[in-house]
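Tutorial, part two.
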Amino acid sequence: MSDNTNPILDHQLLLNRRHFFGRSATGVGVAALWSLLDHGNGSITDAAMNGYHRPPKAKRVIYLHQSGAPSQQDLFDHKPLLQKHFGEDMRDHFEMTQRVTGMTAGQKSFPLAGTKYTFANRGVCGMEISELLPHTAGIVDDLCLIRSMHTEAINHDPAITFFQTGHQLAGRPSMGAWLSYGLGSANDDLPCFIAMVSRGTGRPNCQPLYDRLWGSGFLPTKHAGVKFMSVGDPVLYLTNPAGFDPRARRKMLDMVAEINGQTLAAFGDPEISTRIGAYEMAFRMQTSVPDLTDISDEPDHILDMYGPDVRTRGTYAYNCLLARRMAERDVRFIQLYHMGWDQHFNLPNQLSGQCKDTDQPSAALVKDLKQRGLLDDTLVVWGGEFGRTSYCQGKLTRANYGRDHHPRCFSIWMTGGGVRPGHIHGATDDFCYNITENPVHVHDLHATMLHQLGIDHERLTYFFQGRHFRLTDVHGRVVREVLA
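Running the prediction step on this input gives:
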């Protein structure tokens, strides 16, 4: 029986810890407190790993999660046969073995829906991209397009949770939390892991996104992502109350830290360390965050590159610019979520809005990182939680259609951080129903990301409830074919 299920043993262990730390208050407890109160004399890493498992290609990650699942047939994976057989029942061409959702399970037919958008080969690499993504088309020679992603969940919340944590059920640490735990912070004045959320114009009231998606799960809470807000203080309660100056704040924090240090020495609870560290980080962020979010020092030609929405706080374009500024300041994991990609009906109108939101800023972020020399050691990932069906949900016309969820195959792209540029990995069949070449599972993607960060995904583990857990759970392989 583990500590967590035996209250008597838990109490005995608590008494032993209290005795040990009480007798060594001037040792372990004070040393821990001293390390947490380092006011700028070097980075506070607190990493679980003693060095990298392998030489890293990337220092940081910017993950652009497109929540709701973009339609690969309309953006990245052109299928002319869908247009040729427009309106015909999919079951007349092959057996449908993929599970369908309750939203389309009762349909009498599953009519094939070809895209209404044109595709063209772009760049030196000849990557075929939709007309909806003219700015992304301009950076294809920097991209690695994976057309053979597949996942296990067919509904949004478990699918998003799976992509963020490697498990469909809530409670596991997110990608950024694992990175914070393994490598620690690379800067003193900003969180190691920051998350930002924007609402799309396609479906602004789409599925909600919960804070647990950037949470620490069973890891210490100091590894959880810090959400930047789109209104008010970027971080809650960052501003001092009226009449309360920084010197008074510093004196108050020193007194609270002393009290917390005594409690830490007595109990040894790691969450007390987290609280002390959080107070200290918050104090430093009172200076660093306003400097980060003040984009008045950005020249007009840079702002124009990100598009007209960049000057509006909380937009995807603004968040992309902040992501670049965070990368310059060595934030380890930067997560952007853009809502609104769930096009069950009225796809042409909604999808064009989503692309307008994201195409120019995403491309600008890549170009901006590249021109500053940051793309080489920054891994950028763009994609949703699953794909869309090639059959129509609801009424099908030449001008309008919708698509249901399809986890069996979809597309994402990666760039920077040692990823192979101008490359297409994997392929799907003529109806975009099954993968025909080089499948990539979610755990494979996670393993590859960690590999580029110098981490062996099988060795970065955390012992919890009687076993060692990892981001890739019990399988996953590094997709070496997508690496430069």
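Residues 59-231+313-482 form a domain with the Alkaline Phosphatase, subunit A fold (CATH 3.40.720). In part three we will examine how such features are distributed along the chain.
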